[in-house]
Amino acid sequence: xxxxxxxxxVQYQTPxxxxxxxxxQQMAPEAFEEFVSDVWEFLGWNTRVVGKPGxxxxxxxxxxxxxxxxxxxxxxxxxxSVGSPEVQQYASLRLQExxxxxxxxxxxxxxxxxxxxxxxxxxxxxxxxxELIEMIDEIEAFxxxxxxxxxxxxxxxxxxxxxxxxxxxxxxxxWVRSLFS
Length: 181
Fold this sequence. Notes:
Elements: H1 17-25, H2 29-42, E1 46-49, E2 60-64, E3 67-74, E4 81-82, H3 84-91, E5 102-107, E6 110-111, H4 113-122, E7 124-127, H5 129-139, H6 142-148, H7 166-178
Helix pairs in contact: 1-5, 3-4, 5-7
């Protein structure tokens, strides 16, 4: 059977984190808000996407038990970062609603050094594009990608040692897990 038909089953190759991040960066901003909402739903939160003109900066409201989180979803291109002025602006989101426990900024891009330094002081959780994808890997939220990208097939095998920023990522996971304990 030298005609190439033997063993012609389809094989999927798991996309790299860079490829997945590029796909997220190409989404419409509203679609990225829905994606972030779906990730938090997978984590067990009840979410509501409110991002629209006049949303006062709140894109997603996430609630679990008596905890409430306001999420700002920033779908940015590869060379754009969220700076400290935006962190300051979004930290004030907690004043717009009652009983807010956490403000989180999720971006497909990165955060400036100044933003990363300021965020803990303002009690804002920052999740960059790579950390978002690593979190999806870690919690095995593959169906979120399946729901938003029909052409992407993800493997269920996670190599934790391959995570590029393990200490920050593990800190993020500890925070997420602490919310459920």
